[in-house]
């Protein structure tokens, strides 16, 4: 399907005037199965998957951009962005003005994509499961540190598994989650797999 869309854009002569953004709204669905056949995805070194509001495997996905003549080819950007950025980016490209009567969480991606800035404007990103805040990320400015606090995490089943294989999806609240007070804290720059929560003993800062 994606190839058909790109072929049509090329056939209509719109390749150089069209921004293409290919992404996903979540990581692989680990629990997916048909009968006894396990068909779930794989999120590499990242913990968790689809419908898990906080773990990196549920929220960290690649974005692929194409706009010949405007965006440099083969460039890799390792900065946190959000699908919420689509709206302000499109408004900017269309010559519009963002509403001023509300907070817009997204950011225009063009400066980052074109290389006029090195870092994403997102200093904080809030990660929800449904209406429940599960985690928040702080991309500390002028530092390589990316701190992430988990307030709730899903209870995996069976114990020790990396997903909720008894349900098909991990729940967002209630008995299906563990609440953390104080929150679990990770430095994603050093621990992208979220395997070792920090403590005052291991991270004095």
UniProtKB/TrEMBL annotation:
Pfam families: Sulfatase, Sulfatase_C
GO molecular function annotation: arylsulfatase activity; metal ion binding
Top-level taxon of the source organism: Eukaryota
Entry keywords, A to Z: Calcium, Hydrolase, Metal-binding
Cofactor: Ca(2+)
Limits of the Sulfatase N-terminal domain: 2-95
A Gene Ontology term for the protein's cellular component: endoplasmic reticulum
UniProt-listed PANTHER family: ARYLSULFATASE D, ARYLSULFATASE FAMILY MEMBER
Family indicated by similarity: Belongs to the sulfatase family.
Protein known as: ARSD Arylsulfatase
Species of provenance: Corythaeola cristata
């Amino acid at each position: 399907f994606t190839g058909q869309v790109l072929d049509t854009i090329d056939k209509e002569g719109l390749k150089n005037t069209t921004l293409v953004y290919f992404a996903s709204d979540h990581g692989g669905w680990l629990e997916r199965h048909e009968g006894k056949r396990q068909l779930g995805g794989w999120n590499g070194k990242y913990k968790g998957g689809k419908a898990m509001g906080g773990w990196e495997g549920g929220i960290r996905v690649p974005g692929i951009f194409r706009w010949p003549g405007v965006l440099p080819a083969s460039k890799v950007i390792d900065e946190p962005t959000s699908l919420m950025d689509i709206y302000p980016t499109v408004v900017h490209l269309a010559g519009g003005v963002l509403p001023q009567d509300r907070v817009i969480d997204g950011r225009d991606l063009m400066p980052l994509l074109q290389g006029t800035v090195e870092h994403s404007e997102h200093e904080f990103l809030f990660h929800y499961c449904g209406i429940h805040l599960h985690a928040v990320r702080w991309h500390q400015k002028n530092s390589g540190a990316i701190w992430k606090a988990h307030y709730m995490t899903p209870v995996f089943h069976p114990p020790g598994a990396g997903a909720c294989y008894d349900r098909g999806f991990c729940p967002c609240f209630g008995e299906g989650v563990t609440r953390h007070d104080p929150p679990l804290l990770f430095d994603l720059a050093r621990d992208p797999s979220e395997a070792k929560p920090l403590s005052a003993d291991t991270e004095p800062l």
